Amino acid sequence: MIERIHADNNPHFFFLNYSLANLSVQNFIVIPKYYFIDDIIEKRKPLAATARRAGWIGCNILLNNIPSTGRIFLVKNGEVQNKKQVIETWAKTSFISKQSNESKGWTLEILKLIERIPNKEFKLDDVYQFENELHKKFPKNNFIKDKIRQQLQILRDKGLLEFKTKGVYRKTS
């Protein structure tokens, strides 16, 4: 699976949730392929020796490790979403597809951390609170705060954040 998500022709993923009781689609979500990085793949234990495909190793896709910006609803709670809105939502994050795997990791991690901040408006210091967590995730980087600021600038430039005043940002979605 890791090889597949690193391939140049890896697919976008679609997830369907439906109601069997009334035979209707409840949620239909697309996750753009550029959101699939190593962190969302969890290796499972090999199948037992008694299994028909003994030794085969599967994986779980950890959807909770994908920022909400990567879960694009085509149908949400049984309602078809506005086509223009879906396209705009997709376009907002398409810049991630052009990033290297390491840069994607940083961008997606900062997006996830910002989502954990409960307020729509937040301070740079709120993001700095995650410095130790980021250092564990990216141990080779000794300039975590610099990288945080860089990522916030990128997200601001791409319209995912709004810069209010020095050290203060606002979530746009």
Report on this model:
This protein is an alpha+beta fold and 173 residues long. The protein has 2 domains: 93 residues, 3-Layer(aba) Sandwich (PvuII Endonuclease, Chain A), CATH 3.40.210.30; 75 residues, Arc Repressor Mutant, subunit A (Orthogonal Bundle). It is 34% helix and 23% strand. The protein is built from 6 helices and 9 strands. The chain has a 4-stranded antiparallel beta sheet with strand order 1-2-5-6. It has a 3-stranded antiparallel beta sheet with strand order 7-9-8. A two-stranded antiparallel ribbon has the order 3-4. β5 and β6 form a beta hairpin. The longest helix has 16 residues. The chain starts with a helix and ends with a strand.
Brief synopsis:
This protein is an alpha+beta fold. The chain has helices at residues 2-6, 83-93, 101-116, 124-128, 131-137, 144-157, and strands at residues 13-19, 24-31, 41-43, 59-61, 72-76, 79-80, 121-123, 161-165, 168-171.
